[in-house]
Each structure stands twice: as C-alpha cells, then as structure tokens.
Amino acid sequence: MPYFFLSNMSKCNFIRKDVVYMYNQYDELEYARNIYQNGFQSNYLPTQLRLLAIYMKTELGYKPRQLRAELTAFCQDRLPGYQPAVHYPAINKALRQAGQKGASLLHIKELPIYQWELDFLTAYPLCPQEQMTAALEYNCRKLMFTLLVRTRLRRLISLQKNYGENLCLYFKGGGREYRELKQEAKLPSSQDLHSGLIYHLAAAGAVTPMHDGLLRLDFMEEADRAAECVSCSPTFEPAFSISHFNNAGWYYDYYNRLPRMKLCRHCGSPFKASGNRQLYCPGCTEEMERERWKIRARKHRGMAVPAGDSLLVPADSTTGSCHGFEITVQPPLLKGLECGTVFS
Description:
By secondary structure, the protein is mainly α. The chain has three domains: 5-98, no CATH class; 111-258, no CATH class; 282-343, no CATH class. It is 46% helix and 10% strand. It has helices at 5-9, 28-38, 45-58, 64-78, 84-98, 115-123, 134-160, 175-185, 193-203, 218-229, 248-255, 282-301, and strands at residues 111-114, 170-172, 207-209, 214-217, 238-242, 261-263, 270-272, 310-313, 325-329, 342-343. It has a three-stranded antiparallel beta sheet. Strands 8-9-10 form a three-stranded antiparallel beta sheet. The longest helix has 27 residues, at 134-160. It starts with a helix and ends with a strand. The model is unreliable at 1-20 and 308-344 (pLDDT under 50).
C-alpha cells in the first residue's frame, strides 16, 4: 500500500533543530533512543517508526497490545498534524516489523582491526613489481582492506540480527555500490576500479569477478584460515579500531603514515589535511563554523551564552588552524559576575 501520507506530512516541519541526531545505519539503538527521548528527527516516518517500535519492544519490554497503545500515543503527542486514519498504515506496518522473529536494533560503535589482518594484507602476494607501480599496489591493498572491513561489518550485522552464521564471502552491487566502495576506500578519482584494481586483484587470485557485479572475495577465505592459526599469538591483539566506517581507506592511510594524514581533534576520525595548520576534518570544521556564527549572533543581539556550553571554534574556519581558541562557558564563580559570562 503506498504511503500517501508522506506527501501531506512533507509540508509539516516537525524536526527539532536543537536535538537532531544523524541516522547511523550501524547504530540504530542510539538513534531509536534519541527518537524516544526527543521526538522524530526527520520528515521520513517509516524508518523512524520501525526503529521506535523495535526499541519499545526490545529495550522497554512492551507487549504487543501495550506496544500498539504506546506507539500510537507517542505519535499523537510528538507528530504535528497527526490523523489516525492517515497514519494508521505506517504505524501498523512498524508494529508488524517489530513483531517479526529476531527483530533487533544494530549497535556497532567500533570495529577492531587486528595486527595479523594488517600483516596478512601487507604480505599477500600480488602481481610482480614490474607489472604494477608502487602506487597501484598500495591502492590494491587498500581496496582489499576496505573489502575486509565491509565483510567484518556484515558478519557483525548477521550476528546481531540473528541471521545465523554467514561468512559473507561475496560483494555484490551495481554502479552505485561500487562508487560507494571506491569512496569508502578513499581512492584517487583518476583510479579506475574495474579495469585497474579489480583486474590486478583477480590476476593475483585475491578476488574472482562473476556475473552481474558479483565479486567473490577469495582472499577472505585465506584470511579466515589464517585467523585459526594466529588466534593465540600476540598479533591477535587489535592494532586500532574503526568508528567512522565511511573513512576506512583513511584509517589504512593513517596506519601506514602517509603524508598529510591526521586525526581530527574533535571527532577522532582520520582525514587528509589540505595544509599543516589544519587540525579538524571538514565535517567538524563546518559544525564549528556554525557554532561560531551562533556565538557572534548572540553577541550582536546582546544575548548571553547559556551556562555549561563548551565549544571549540577555530579562528580560521577553512583550515581549522592552530590559532584556534576554546570558548568555555562556565557558571560564575565570583560574586558580582552575571550568569552567562564568557571566559576565553
């Protein structure tokens, strides 16, 4: 049944700008908890209703009848323009999805990468050196690392979703999926994925191209066999952990100490700096620039900054230079100071 109510609700802006939490497909639990505490986070309801229904069932322990009543009451209180006849199909579908066997929320904060995995990728035999440059060989190994991270994530998802044992030895996708893979690996835009990297990996026996974009990951089978041999060795200790899964290639670059690779001082994600003075990744730079303009607007209007806020704002919003300053707003400690005084 088509959800015609979406066209009606798209005109209603019920997003709370002060508590918006970006959807993370690997951390559905935190996103659902934020919806339950602060209300809907976007105008797209089906996904949020599904996550909210599963959260109420698994985390709050609601039974089916109570779950229907609580979810309906939540929509009545938190959804402007709520109409029972219009929103019933979406609520009913969310309840059916929550009632399915094994329905659960993903909660993957980070993925540990073990030293033996890095050693395995470094020592994996590729084509002879005279057939490929050092840069091409490095990009091949970085693509293998990204495929390894994706495979490990899919196995964790299968484990948390109770799908059973799934080795996930294949990668399948069309043009969009392969573009996402290239973006996650942080490969150069001039690097051809199919006729370049995948061709050399197939020649080395690391992967086997099949039909309709299907790629068999032969090197993962060898990695699984190697894992059984090193399970008790010191190399089974984690070398580092990945928390920003879309930047898998940059983690590999930072581990190999490539030039201009840094860790963001705000979120801890690796990024490729455009200059020596850059301390923050582009995403955090934009976020801090918005906070900087908020402070300017408050000062211009003569408003006090609320006590308890702590903002790290770079002086140069483009580069996030080392001349940044920290603005810490604290409650007044001395008598005579007004609440909201800014200490810098």
